[in-house]
Amino acid sequence: MPFTASEFDLLMMRRALDLARLGTGYARPNPLVGCVITHEGRVIGEGWHRQYGGPHAEVNAINSVTEPELLPRSRVYVTLEPCAHHGQTPPCADLLIEKQVADVIICNLDPNPLVAGRGLQRLRDAGITVETGVLEAEGRWLNRRFFTFQEQQRPYVVLKWAETADGYLAGPYFQPVPISGELARVAVHQWRAEEHAILVGTRTALHDNPRLNVREWPGQNPVRLVIDKNLSLPPTHYLFDGSQPTLVFTYRERAGKHNVEYVTLPEADDLFPRILRHLHEQKVQSVLVEGGPTVLNSLLRDGLWDEARVIRAPKVLGGGVPAPTLGLTGLQEQFRLGEDEVFIYKRAIGA
């Protein structure tokens, strides 16, 4: 018979998803995973994947159990199929088998070819009851970066821009103009901490001289990415200060130094697909794009985006550089940050 999750099962999986979310910005390029262990309706252990290279969620949850004699009669809720291969850590499926847990409830199966059903089968072969697909849609959204990276062989791409009430990104001739307010600025730094890398084009780098770090929010700085086809950016700009890993995509040759690497690409029309392929090879799981209209419109035109976050401020410019147009297609969420409105869009499959 198909498994029907009880209200308690749903509650425990939601708790596991909440725990998994705590690893955002730290577990990458690994997925976000949370784990809850129960015995006769009581939580006896919890854990999540806190840091790439560190113990997985199942290990942390089991280590938190103060009554290990209960494990053979326990039910384990985990947001992603337990791994069945040796990576940075031993297989979690083997650990659950060793502890002789009774049941394992899984939110999502792992699309990674190194796992892909192997963990599930290993548990079942050991006599453990395994059920899958509990809150599956919520789990896929939580791990949308990981699933996109595995299934589409490219990073998850988030577009971000701030626009005025009359639809401009900047003043005439790309003159930088403050648009969004303080709360939105802090939110952008939070978004930076959540993504693996951050991308700007030549014009944005030249006019704004951005630092592209997370000084307004706790977390890890993203890898900085900049397109500089002809190596025209001044070496005195913040992007070249060596303070965080930086990749420069260019048509020219230049040796890297001071935490800055130059990636030479052929002069061709498929610049952005090549950039995304390179990032996938480097295991960069997601990219926040803070570029100008050329970069944003190119990614929108080619369908190389997954999410767009648009900050609309009450300021009116009356002229300048037009913002991209998305309309209401794919609008997922809308909320206010002070005087600014934030619109979150999700690209429709096949769009």
From TrEMBL:
Its EC number is 3.5.4.26, 1.1.1.193. The keyword Flavoprotein does not apply. Its cofactor is Zn(2+). Pathway: Cofactor biosynthesis; riboflavin biosynthesis; 5-amino-6-(D-ribitylamino)uracil from GTP: step 2/4; Cofactor biosynthesis; riboflavin biosynthesis; 5-amino-6-(D-ribitylamino)uracil from GTP: step 3/4. It catalyses: 5-amino-6-(5-phospho-D-ribitylamino)uracil + NADP(+) = 5-amino-6-(5-phospho-D-ribosylamino)uracil + NADPH + H(+); 2,5-diamino-6-hydroxy-4-(5-phosphoribosylamino)-pyrimidine + H2O + H(+) = 5-amino-6-(5-phospho-D-ribosylamino)uracil + NH4(+). Binds 1 zinc ion. One of its GO terms (biological process) is riboflavin biosynthetic process. The active site is at E58. InterPro entries: APOBEC/CMP_deaminase_Zn-bd, CMP_dCMP_dom, Cytidine_deaminase-like, DHFR-like_dom_sf, Eubact_RibD, RibDG_C, Riboflavin_Biosynth_HTPR. Keywords: Hydrolase, Metal-binding, Multifunctional enzyme, NADP, Oxidoreductase, Riboflavin biosynthesis, Zinc. NADP(+) binds at A162, T204, D208, G292, P293, T294, V295, L296, N297, S298. PROSITE patterns: CYT_DCMP_DEAMINASES_1, CYT_DCMP_DEAMINASES_2. NCBIfam families: eubact_ribD (TIGR00326). Converts 2,5-diamino-6-(ribosylamino)-4(3h)-pyrimidinone 5'-phosphate into 5-amino-6-(ribosylamino)-2,4(1h,3h)-pyrimidinedione 5'-phosphate. This is Riboflavin biosynthesis protein RibD. It comes from Hymenobacter rubripertinctus.
